[in-house]
């Protein structure tokens, strides 16, 4: 598969998830495992252009696919979503943050000017335990103003 | 020669919302949490857990697991070389159970294997048989049998005082999980000389170290605990979970061992917020003046002690709330059962107490025909008053009246007439319609003791070094995400006048304890230590440099740079190491009286909730809060703590409960244990009151817990306001609203 623009290969066992393969075989530990059930969004990645919970995707099913993780979003500079979240104080423990970054970037790709309600709805699959979501929303709202 | 007029204020000192240094690594995915650690040749650990809440192990055969390819160690209780007991306040829990198992999910054996799957299969291969025993799971029955960890009481003033108006109530608080997103995880690395380095997400490295060395039976300096990236804590990481297990496996195998709990295992791998039952009786004069408060509180400590003694003490001391009253009797007990062990969670007993006393205040106001906020203001604690329970004089800012006045004046949200389902209870399920919805408003105010209480020698060490390359701050305190590192750097900058400050989180061998990142204490304790060390370092610099002012350029005298930094510390750093203690507190006397707490913070919430009573649906529309914060070292961090803490309180009011039936957790997943999502999160308007605390750097107070104390009570009060129902239990479930709340127990039953 292609991960963050690079061809990567690894041998996976039958039931291993894409999240497991990214973290354990490819050492891309930015995507986090927190619920293993697709409830919390901490493992969000882009799979062939679609936002998915990588804990719910069998690694073997990603064969030949294009995967973008939080490590591949920014390039040499931070992605605007990353910068906005830091600047807004939307990062506390930060464990949910990579998932929020990927999901928010996916939302803005699809809809460059979402309303606040659209943001809240689009990110309802990502759980944050620290911030109460306020600072995340404030951070993302600055991006819509900028566009 | 450089001359100038007065030193400008240093950049990014206290009072400024600086950016966190771990912010960029956390958004780009490079920050290393304990679960991200990796080492060549590392093994993976797994744990065998008992599937019964109470049982006796009758047969245990590890042979089939040992025989598996790829398995390097299988350890049972008899393999624990030191003391097979640990515990935060007293060592009463086996590292690995050897005979009697006291709760569902208790650890019995450990495996280390080449990969996680092999480790899991090896756990399954262990042959174990149990004699299943009858568990004790009813807290009231436990109390009757005197199966108790601790009884606490406060008795103050004449016990025969009375008022003309009397209200009684019975209240219940469910078992909440801290649910940090990062599960328990860590990496233990043997040093080849019988010692071990543990990299772990924790809240207190030194107390982990002490419990590990006891379990390993080695000297203190053989174990070094390092602070790895922490994926949230909220109390869940104050107790040992896998720390001793990891070190045992690493020393046994001679290889690095990593362990990471699944979410389901995490639910049995750490302690929870104590479920509580509260019976309360309030008596007041017709003008609302409180004359008598009685309460009885049972909290369920589960199978092992953890911090239950302290939590029940806290529930007792906070039982009267932030109100004046000179006749008080509160009895509390932390019972021992075969339910999951409970311990620290944000709010630590004050949350449970607040749910009771605030429901009582509403009930009392209604009985008196008084405005609910007015009644609170009439009785509000002020600086110089005595805390109703312990009798100690409140010698810190206590702006309870101002908090309530300001909260009451904050604008209410508009009446929403929209049919947009996203704005209705039940959301886009389209289950209700606007005409079915009634709105309620609820207020609650609470207090929280700050730092450790009850005569505990509470201290934090810190070291501040001025070097040619900038200032180093060294601490063993744990940054759990709250922003402690920023606060320490800001304090050092302001005191020293030097902008270039880096905070180092030292392991347990390099510096003494900073105490736990809990009890809202690190800003005051480690912050206080950094301030003290920085002040002394500055003093040394001024003496060495022969001047009266210090900044990044060096030492100045009368506006002239007399000793540039390269000369000041070119040959020798200025280095000051301190151990900061907060003012001494008392152990309680037999009536729970004394100067038991060193400081308090106060907060109030006003919740606005829309309810469809017929369907039992409710939605928090908005929640506003005013909090006493002392001084904001980093305003954005303070807001972050208030918003996040408030949301955890909303969770306890509306969604979050570990459902335990006959000692078994029925919902140990995020599919069944529901956490607030973005769509459950209402707007939060925040005001703070900055009135300096009695101690704490620049007058700062801890801010982490107060937002969680009163938010739950406010949300449930708002649902009561909308429905007129009793709702004496939290979290409120749809059936409580749709079918009417459970019949409240009568106070005289207790």
Give the integer mean of the pLDDT values of chain A. 96
Topology pattern of chain A, helix = H, strand = E: EEHEEEHHHH
- CATH topology of the largest domain in chain B, by name, is Aldehyde Oxidoreductase, domain 4
- Quaternary structure: heterodimer
Task: Describe the protein in words.
- Chain A is α+β, with helices and mostly antiparallel strands and 147 residues long.
- In chain A, 34% of the residues lie in helices and 10% in strands.
- Chain A has helices at 18-25, 80-87, 97-110, 116-122, 134-146; strands at residues 2-3, 6-7, 44-47, 50-53, 66-68.
- A five-stranded mixed beta sheet of chain A has the order 2-1-5-3-4, covered by helices on one side.
- In chain A, β1 (2-3) and β2 (6-7) form a beta hairpin.
- Chain A is globular and about 45 Å long.
- The mean pLDDT of chain A is 96.
- With 750 residues, chain B is α+β, with helices and mostly antiparallel strands.
- Chain B has three domains: 23-31 and 459-581, Aldehyde oxidase/xanthine dehydrogenase, molybdopterin binding domain (Aldehyde Oxidoreductase, domain 4), CATH 3.30.365.10; 34-134 and 179-269, Aldehyde oxidase/xanthine dehydrogenase, a/b hammerhead (Aldehyde Oxidoreductase, domain 3); 272-452 and 589-738, Aldehyde oxidase/xanthine dehydrogenase, molybdopterin binding domain (Aldehyde Oxidoreductase, domain 4, 2-Layer Sandwich).
- Chain B is built from 17 helices and 31 strands.
- Chain B has a seven-stranded mixed beta sheet, sandwiched between helices. A six-stranded mixed beta sheet of chain B has the order 7-16-15-14-8-31.
- In chain B, α12 links the parallel β20 and β21 (501-505).
- In chain B, α5 (205-216) crosses α6 and α8 runs parallel beside α9 (350-368).
- Residues 744-750 of chain B have low confidence and may be disordered.
- The interface between A and B is large, with 56 and 56 residues.
């Amino acid at each position: 598969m292609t991960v963050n623009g690079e061809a990567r290969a690894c041998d996976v066992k039958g039931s291993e998830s894409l999240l497991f393969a990214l973290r354990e075989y490819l050492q891309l530990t930015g995507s986090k495992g927190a619920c293993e059930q697709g409830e919390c969004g901490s493992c969000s990645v882009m799979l062939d252009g679609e936002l998915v919970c990588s804990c719910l995707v069998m690694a073997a099913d990603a064969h030949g696919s294009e995967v973008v993780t939080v490590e591949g979003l920014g390039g040499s500079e931070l992605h605007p979503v990353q910068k906005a979240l830091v600047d807004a104080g939307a990062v506390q423990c930060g464990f949910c943050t990579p998932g929020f970054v990927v999901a928010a970037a996916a939302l803005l790709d699809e809809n460059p000017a979402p309303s606040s309600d659209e943001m809240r709805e689009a990110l309802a699959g990502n759980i944050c335990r620290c911030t109460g979501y306020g600072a995340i929303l404030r951070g993302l709202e600055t991006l819509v103003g900028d566009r | 020669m450089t001359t100038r007029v007065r030193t400008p204020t240093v950049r990014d000192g206290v009072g400024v919302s600086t950016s966190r240094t771990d912010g960029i690594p956390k958004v780009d995915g490079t920050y290393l949490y304990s679960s991200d650690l990796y080492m060549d040749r590392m093994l993976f650990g797994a744990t065998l857990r008992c599937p019964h809440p109470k049982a006796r192990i009758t047969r245990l055969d590890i042979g089939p697991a040992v025989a598996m390819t790829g398995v390097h160690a299988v350890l049972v209780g008899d393999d624990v070389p030191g003391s097979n007991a640990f515990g935060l306040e007293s060592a009463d829990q086996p590292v690995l159970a050897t005979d009697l198992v006291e709760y569902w999910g208790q650890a019995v054996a450990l495996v280390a294997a080449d990969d996680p799957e092999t480790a899991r299969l090896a756990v399954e291969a262990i042959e174990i048989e149990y004699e299943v025993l009858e568990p004790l799971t009813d807290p009231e029955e436990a109390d009757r049998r005197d199966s108790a960890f601790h009884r606490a009481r406060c008795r103050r003033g004449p016990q025969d005082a009375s008022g003309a108006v009397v209200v009684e109530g019975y209240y219940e608080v469910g078992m909440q999980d801290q649910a940090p997103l990062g599960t328990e995880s860590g990496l233990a690395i043997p040093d080849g000389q019988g010692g071990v380095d543990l990299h772990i997400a924790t809240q207190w490295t030194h107390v982990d170290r002490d419990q590990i060395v006891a379990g390993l039976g080695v000297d203190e300096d053989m174990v070094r605990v390092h602070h790895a990236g922490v994926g949230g804590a909220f109390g869940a990481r104050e107790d040992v979970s896998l720390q001793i297990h990891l070190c045992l496996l690493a020393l046994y195998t001679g290889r690095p061992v990593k362990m990471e709990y699944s979410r389901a295992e995490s639910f049995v791998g750490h302690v929870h917020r104590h479920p509580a039952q509260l019976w309360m009786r309030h008596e007041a004069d017709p003008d609302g003046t409180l004359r008598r408060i009685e309460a009885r509180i049972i909290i369920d400590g589960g199978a092992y002690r953890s911090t239950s003694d302290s939590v029940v003490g806290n529930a007792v001391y906070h039982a009267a709330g932030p109100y004046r009253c000179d006749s008080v009797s509160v009895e509390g007990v932390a019972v021992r059962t075969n339910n999951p062990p409970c311990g620290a969670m944000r709010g630590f007993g004050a949350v449970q107490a607040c749910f009771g006393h605030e429901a009582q205040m509403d009930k009392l106001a209604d009985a008196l025909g008084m405005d609910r906020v007015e009644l609170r203001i009439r009785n509000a604690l002020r600086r110089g008053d005595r805390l109703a329970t312990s009798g100690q004089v409140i010698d810190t800012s206590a702006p309870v009246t101002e908090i309530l006045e300001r909260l009451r004046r904050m604008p209410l949200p508009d009446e929403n007439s929209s049919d947009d389902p996203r704005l209705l209870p039940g959301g886009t399920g389209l289950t209700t319609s606007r005409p079915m919805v009634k709105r309620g408003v609820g207020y609650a105010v609470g207090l929280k003791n700050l730092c450790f209480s009850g005569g505990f020698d509470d201290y934090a060490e810190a070291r501040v070094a001025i070097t040619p390359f900038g200032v180093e701050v060294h601490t063993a305190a744990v940054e759990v995400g709250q922003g402690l590192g920023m606060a320490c750097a800001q304090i050092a900058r302001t005191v020293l006048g030097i902008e270039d400050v880096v905070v180092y989180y030292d392991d347990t061998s390099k510096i003494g304890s900073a105490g736990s990142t809990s009890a809202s204490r690190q800003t005051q304790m480690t912050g206080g230590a950094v301030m003290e060390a920085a002040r002394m370092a500055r003093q040394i610099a001024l003496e060495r440099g022969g001047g009266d002012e210090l900044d990044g350029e060096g030492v100045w005298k009368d506006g002239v740079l007399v000793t540039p930094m390269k000369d000041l510390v070119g040959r020798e750093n200025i280095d000051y190491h301190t151990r900061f203690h907060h003012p001494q507190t008392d152990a309680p006397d037999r009536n729970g009286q004394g100067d038991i707490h060193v400081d308090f913070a106060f907060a109030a919430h006003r919740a606005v909730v829309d309810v469809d009573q017929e369907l039992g649906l409710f939605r928090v529309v908005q929640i506003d809060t005013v909090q006493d914060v002392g001084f904001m070292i980093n305003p954005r961090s303070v807001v972050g703590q208030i918003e996040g803490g408030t949301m955890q309180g909303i969770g306890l009011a509306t969604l979050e409960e570990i459902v335990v039936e006959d000692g078994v957790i029925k919902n140990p997943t995020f599919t069944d244990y529901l956490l607030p999502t973005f769509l459950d999160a209402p707007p939060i308007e925040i005001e703070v009151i900055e009135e300096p605390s009695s101690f704490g750097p620049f007058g700062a107070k801890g801010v982490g817990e107060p937002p969680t104390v009163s938010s739950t009570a406010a949300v449930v009060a708002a649902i009561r306001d909308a429905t007129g129902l009793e709702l004496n239990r939290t979290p409120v479930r749809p059936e409580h609203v749709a079918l009417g709340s459970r019949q409240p127990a009568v106070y005289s039953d207790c």
